[in-house]
# Entry
Amino acid sequence: MSGFDTIVTGGTIVTASDTFQADIGISDGRIVAIAEGLESAGTVIDASGKLVLPGGIDSHVHISQPSGPGVVMADDFDSATRAAAFGGNTTVMPFCLQQKGQSLREALTWYHGLADGNCHVDVSFHLILSDPTPHVLGQELPALVADGYSSVKVFMTYDGLKLSDREILETLTAAKTSGALVLVHAENDDAISFLRDRAEDAGDTAPKFHASTRPVPVEREATHRAISLAEIVDVPIMIVHVSNREAMEEIRRARERGRPVFGETCPQYLVLTAEDLDTAGFDGAKYVCSPPPRDTDSQIACWEGITTGVFDVFSSDHCPFRYEDVEGKKHPDGQKSFRWIPNGIPGVETRLPILFSEGVKKGRIDLQTFVALTATNHAKTYGLYPKKGTIAVGSDADIVLWDPDRKETIRQEILHHGADYTPYEGIAVTGWPVLTMVRGKVVVSDGVMAETGTGVHLQRGSPAAVSALADNV
Ligand code: URP
Ligand code: ZN
Ligand code: ZN
# Structure
């Protein structure tokens, strides 16, 4: 076979099942050959000494999401997807937030207006349902799932977003019949509000009280409740951003009962703790996210969840706000009380290096698990596989060359996101992406943006776990 647009030669290909030496032939943006000794191509990319990985898929990122009065997210689609590409990602899945009273179509039109033409990696939207009216659930959601928006996040906390148990049951039911997977943010809102009021009454308003007013039982109880609600209507769910042992155990136990419950954890739960919120002055605000980072035992538990397969996906929950900014972490209200500090931290560019270094290099996980957790399982879970998430003939040529021995210290100055800090400042990692290719186009090479505007929106089919159950409706 000859006449490829591009070949990637001499590298070590890693998939979720195998590691092997071969060349990759690419034409029209897709992988058309995997074999030894490929030649005759327009472009030859020498991957000697590098790992050749499926591009990272980060299935949990927030971009340009409205976040309350006077608060502005630090990334738009240009900067977020640029950072994603530099971090070795070829697809990101941002959330399209339905505001109360808004139709889902209206919300999507707004997000597409921001995203289309401005992305450097592929994107595929999840929906956030904040107003699940009978019309939204009965008419709009099925139409949008048919159009390829086949996942929906619901919140059990946050004013303006949280749904009642009844609304969650109705959403789960509509998702089942229309073929969408529901992602759940599991924290008990009443418990948070009780603890928060008590803290404020006692004058405890510093950033560290964000963590102490969202303790583990808040997350464990809501995780258990979400799993129970999904069981009542017999539908799969994904519990996102799991931070600790007890919530992780809820997922494990549900699986043992045969429930189709998926789990996600994130870098902040492996390398940060609540002590990071307890730093001098207001600096703790840099680590305010929900659920909050916990303690060392919780980190160990999240690793256990990774190594035992409780967690299917490892995402960043990239949700960036600038620190030195009154529209960001230093919002005037946030300086009065932790209650108002915008929740979320940046991480789309550092997710892969952190997991590779802390996981693969430290012997906690093998390369196959790394690829599964950062790419393949995201594609399988959300209906993008095998177009995305693997290196196989017929798949999109979404490829990352990874230098497994390159040492870097994570620092704000080497990153490309719109935030003015990284919560991972100073963490030394081994392993770094050196080339990112999206559908056959080199987007980043050796630290330089090679091509812009490559990303397109991906319509998705029904996630497999949902289709399987929907057949029985
Ligand atoms: O604090 C966080 N995680 N902010 C992002 C929104 C969410 O709940 O995922
Ligand atoms: Zn969430
Ligand atoms: Zn999130």
Notes: The longest strand covers residues 399-409.
